[in-house]
Design a protein that fits this description.
about 190 residues, two-stranded parallel sheet
């Protein structure tokens, strides 16, 4: 009788161990699935560099919108001209309503407001020249910060050149189309 009781206790202990192992494997598998899913989800919805500025739409206008107040300066969305500025390094400021069309087309603008910063401008030129399209460098007189980065509905400003920060902004926003009907745009 004692031997039979011992065998039954041993079988019960073995069954509990097997159940624990099964639940452990299930928990580990669930952890992997949640980790991969969560990581992938974070990658998709991770915050983009810069400060989000709610979109003011993308209406096309026939001439510069006089009196329209863009939500940011430089602008990040809103009424704009049908044409666009050429990509690359420009020596003249770009009209706000023209800038916005470049942003709508997936462009990033790197603009500066300084007269005593030849080294900074040179470094910005070198950086922008790495891209064949969708990036513009131009002066922006009257702007409070020395450097502003704009993309559709995003802005980042700085007073000192930070190459990694500029590159992160460009890489995150460049090439994302924001025309009406684009289901991936903001």
């Amino acid at each position: 009788a004692a031997a039979r009781e011992m065998r039954e206790r041993d079988r019960a202990r073995q069954a509990r161990k097997a159940g624990s192992r099964r639940w452990g494997r299930r928990a580990a598998l669930l952890g992997v699935v949640v980790g991969v899913g969560g990581g992938t989800g974070w990658w998709i919805v991770r915050p983009k560099p810069g400060t989000y500025v709610p979109s003011q739409g993308n209406a096309h206008i026939s001439d510069e919108a006089t009196g329209f107040r863009y939500a940011s300066d430089p602008p990040t969305s809103g009424p704009h001209l049908a044409g666009a500025a050429r990509w690359g390094v420009l020596d003249q400021p770009i009209a706000k309503a023209l800038q916005v069309h470049n942003l709508e087309d997936g462009g990033v603008l790197v603009q500066y407001n300084c007269t005593d910063c030849d080294d900074t401008i040179s470094r910005l030129r070198d950086l922008v020249r790495r891209y064949s399209d969708k990036v513009i460098l131009a002066p922006y007189p009257g702007m409070k910060p020395r450097i502003a980065l704009t993309a559709w509905a995003y802005i980042d400003t700085m007073d000192e050149f930070d190459e990694q920060r500029v590159l992160r902004f460009i890489e995150a926003h460049r090439g994302v189309d924001h025309h009406a009907g684009n289901r991936f745009g903001i």
